Amino acid sequence: MKKYTTFILVGIIIVLAAVLIGTLVYLKNQPPQERAFQPIVTIAPLEPDSSQWGLNFPNQYASFLLTGQNNTDTVYGGSSGFSHLERDPRQVILFTGYSFSREYNDDRGHEFALTDVRAIARVDATTPGSCYSCKSSNNPDLWNDLGLAAFDSMPFAELGQQIDQTIGCANCHDAESMRLVVTNPSLEAAFEVQGIDWRDFSRQEMRTVVCANCHVEYYMVGDDRILTFPWANGTRIDQIYAYYQELAFSDWTYPGTGTPLLKAQHPEFEFFTAASTHSNAGVACADCHMPYVSDGAMKYSSHDIHSPLLNPELACGQCHTDVEYVTGRVAAIQTQVFTAKIAAEDAIIDAITALLAAAADPNADPVLLEEARALHRQAQFLWDFVSAENSMGFHNPEYALSILAEATNLARQAQMLAAQASGHPDLLQTGVYYTLDPVPTPVP
Ligand code: HEC
Ligand code: HEC
Ligand code: HEC
Ligand code: HEC
Asked: Is the pLDDT of residue 439 over 60?
């Protein structure tokens, strides 16, 4: 009996061992596991043509192309590219003497970038190549070939002959690995100045940083018009303003008041990352603007980037259960910020009106006048930083309201000093803008 038991046990062990060996041999001879995706074509490094990348990634490409069809507006944003100057003629006064008083339209989809930059009335014979920096997927290749200085200093029209693609895959992705990358050498340099290597960022951080290739404040340096981000002191508004002060940089001088002014660009990255609730919580630009969508069982990031208010279920609903509540919050925040923004504009225009009179008065106190100009300069940059940012404050509501409150405060001080400089209390009048006849309208 004992013999039989041993026999059976040994038999079982042999069978089990055979099965194990068989299984191992079988597994070893299986073909290597397939990657989730097999490229159909090999994409050349820095390939400018997005349709080539589209052969491998049809969903991302198809959704990307939709940005060329979007035309729906929201209360403060959207995709029609409406004129800021027509909606808010105060901005014609605020930008008098500068090209933005000629034409200034709301941003629209990425597919339109190249068409729009070529059509804008601000472009003329003096426009440098730098203005193509955020408009084309030809750039990474051209930066590589020409170098940044040759790219930026080349006249806009001449560089344009080498550009036939709008924004595309090569602006955000490395062709071989599809990783998100910094492609704009000006962004690379701006991080370097702060001692930051973008390669150390996590994947989630790159889902914000990749947008900073373009959605940032910038200016152009020297005769070569090198595109530069004013981040050496940091990216908060006070640090950026201090940077421009150290350089005594200005974009233009306001006609009549003599104020050297700065034009803010589109500082979405700086604004959002300045300790906003969402940024602090680790939320990225792509979370709201590129939510995951499905094609059957395939999930992919929608590359149809636009206002999240047009698809809040997808954009906000992934994290917030009560989508109606949070979109209601957006409306409330934007209305508050808009109201504060208009109050700042009125205050700055009152300051300009007083400064125009004081500067024309030969007896005005030059020291007080200069102080008034300095206050006008700062007020206008603070206001514009919020105004040119495209979310009407939503990306960072408290920050927007505190900046606008300070802008209004500085503008009122500028007005008072201008009145004091020329000793004319009637320069303390407010709301003069509304009595201007005719009310300024954009130059066609
Ligand atoms: C928590 C969600 C969220 C995050 C994160 C976010 N945004 Fe937005 N963004 C919005 C909302 C909401 C608006 C307002 C849209 C409107 O008014 O129609 C907006 C507006 C914009 C607009 C203007 C859109 C238009 O229709 O004109 C741009 C450009 C933009 N965001 C870029 C960015 C960038 C770049 C980042 C990261 C630095 C970012 N956003 C982070 C929600 C977000
Ligand atoms: C404005 C920047 C930007 C552009 C332009 C862009 N992408 Fe993306 N892409 C992203 C971001 C952000 C992600 C999310 C990456 C992540 O989560 O790591 C992404 C993800 C992807 C992925 C990974 C899978 C997925 O869907 O999340 C693929 C593949 C991809 N993109 C293909 C493309 C193709 C093809 C193009 C050109 C038609 C393109 N992308 C253009 C920013 C961009
Ligand atoms: C290569 C430069 C570039 C990069 C990178 C880039 N953008 Fe843009 N973006 C632009 C330009 C330029 C426009 C305006 C185009 C126009 O008005 O013709 C724009 C427009 C937009 C708009 C407005 C769309 C609409 O329909 O109103 C949103 C929203 C936006 N970008 C978000 C993002 C986000 C989020 C990222 C990062 C994932 C990003 N962008 C990366 C250059 C860029
Ligand atoms: C990836 C996740 C994520 C997405 C997407 C997201 N949020 Fe949030 N949201 C958060 C987190 C996390 C908080 C902070 C919650 C907390 O601390 O209680 C927050 C807070 C908020 C708050 C309160 C802000 C405050 O200062 O108290 C509002 C309003 C809000 N989100 C609106 C939106 C809207 C609108 C969208 C879509 C456009 C959106 N969120 C998309 C994660 C997200």
From this structure: no
